[in-house]
Structures are given as structure tokens and as C-alpha cells.
Protein: Endonuclease/exonuclease/phosphatase domain-containing protein
Organism: Taibaiella lutea
Amino acid sequence: MFYNLYRFPAQPPANRENILKDILDTYHPDILMSCELVNEDGAERILNHSLNYNGVSRYARAGFIFTHGDTADPLQQMVFYNKEKLILLRQQVYPTKVRDINHYTFLLNTTGDSIHLDVFVTHLKSSEGAGNRQLRLEMIDTFVKKSEAVTPNHYVLLAGDFNFYSSYNEPAYQKILDTNNHIRMVDPIHMPGNWNGNDSFKAIHTQATRLSSAGFGEGGASGGMDDRFDFIMMSKSLEQQGALSYVDGSYKAYGNNGNCFDNRIDAYDCDGPYSLQLRQNLYNMSDHIPVVMQLKVNREFAVGVNEVSTSDNPFHLNGNVVKDFLEIKMNSNKKIRKEDFAIYNIIGQKMNVDIQHRGDRLTIDMRMLQNGMYYLACLKGGRFKILKY
């Protein structure tokens, strides 16, 4: 899901993190990409109230880093993610004349060969006019240049509020889809056109949820649903049936029943599959609605950390996702021996790894192993999946 959160949390109504919680409860995205965060407090509110609540701690977020743009009116991007399925390896920030472009590299917590997903999130310059189109192009030029460092077998998403009015006179849109780019990108729904004010595209419009901006702080957009500003673009590799692939037909303007042209999103005559309650929440949350899509993973997800660190086992793992060293600590006062442990690959071959005994801990050196899924076998405690990245 990508969502422009409209100057969160500074603008009314108050406590919008609770409204966002109700929206997310209808979809449960594994990756939530967002823009228009005003400060880090907003990121914390979303993480701790909209995503993690009632004892759930499934979600994590990236670091909040603001490096550039209008410091008098700072707006930043952020990604929240399901840490049971995704491991954030690194994040980078690329300043532009307008706003930062944020780059997040994920490893999927799956069995088999490693699956990497690079996620770029941006908020391009707003408004019509040749000067603003040029600024949007310069921002996308930055994305294209930085994406040249992405490993070719990585999958890529580019999401954001792009502020595109038309595909035909928008050089930034054409630059994203340039087939000469290092990472070839596609629009999942392949729907170019003059989107602004055109009811032929009413099913994919994402702005504006309101006829009037009165009562919503600094205003936001008004005039009803008539623009396709919000996008998730993807690498062409996701159109293929590989380890990770796009689910055909899953890309949606979430909450748009396709009958709300030039109307407020919660109008009674905009009824359809998306409920009135959801559309009322979307109306109050932001002047945009989210865009969503689904990706299919052709792998099993590895067990979570809690499944391998229980008191029922004679030992405790410091997580089942490792880069260099796997640490094992014995529970209670039970004796620990390195001879009791071994590492196997997924076809049952025993791997040649160095195991060192240090006090009440064992350390297994995984650095020489290729990235992927392995099993830790213990004579006294069964077998557990280990993801090496």
C-alpha cells in the first residue's frame, strides 16, 4: 500500500492514527509506503497505534531521516513493514531540489534462494506548468541514476504521490518507463492517458476525497475525485512468474468504487464493494486515498524468531535470521557441547562450518555459506530453519 497521509499528524482531525488503524484493519498491508509525514512522532504514532496494538508487534519501520527540501514545511516519506516476512537490510536517502527520495532494500524471510526487494518512495513536485513538470523530471532522473546501483536480479517498486496530470505531456512518467533504464519499470495496470478531470479514468482516481477543504487545517485538495496522482510502479521482472510476481488485477485505488467522479469519496451515491464506513474513514484521514497491489511469493516463509526461542528447548537462539554468526545459548544450567549441533542445507547436506564454544554460548560462523535457507540440527532439541543473508 502507498498512502499520502496529508501532513500527518499536524492537521485535523485529532488522533488520525486511530482512523488509519481502522482503514488498515480492512487490508493489512505487509508494506505500507507513505508520504507527507511532518515529523518522527507521526511515524511512531502509526507504528504503535495504527499497526501494532493489542499486544501485536508484527510491524517495524525504517529510520526517520530528513535531509533536504523546504525546512519551513518539512514533509518526509516512510516505510512500515511486516518484520515476520521482510528484513530491512539498509536504507538510503537521495536529496533533490524538492523533497528526498527514500530507498529501502529488503530481504524476504523465505526458504530457498534469497529474494530482494528494493523499494523507492517519493513525493514529486506538485501543480501544473512546464516548470513543475521539469522539477518532477529532475527528481525521476535522480531515481533512475540511483537505481543503476541496484543489483539486476532484485525486484523494484517505485511508489509515491507523483502529481501527474497526464501521461502524454509528463516527461517524468515517460522517463520512468524508458526501456533503456538499468531497471525497466512498468505501470502495473498499463493505463496511460489524460487522467485529470477525465471520467474515463474515474475508477483509478486517487485525489481528492473532499469537495471542500474547510475544516481540515491548511486545506488540502478539494473538488472531488478527479486525479490519478498516486502510483505504485514496479520492475518488469514482477510481470514474470518467478520467485516474486505481481498478482494480476490486484492493483486498486483503494476505496474507489468507480462511481465517484467529481464527488466526495464518502458520498452515499458512491456505494459499491468498498463500504461507507471505510470511505468515511478515508474522507477524514486524507485528501488522497491509498493505492494497493499484491505480490505473490513462490517460497515458504521461514519460521519467526519466537518459534525458535522458547523455554521448551534446551537452548536459545539469538534470532533465526543471520548475516555472519549464529549464536546459541543454553537455557538454565544445562551443559552445552558443540558436538551436539550441525548445519544442513535444504537438501540435507551437512555444511562445513566452524563452531566455537565460549562460556555458556556457541557461535557458528555462517560467513562462508551462500545466502539462503539452512537447518540447525541439535541432538537434544530438534531442527530449526535458519535464514542466511
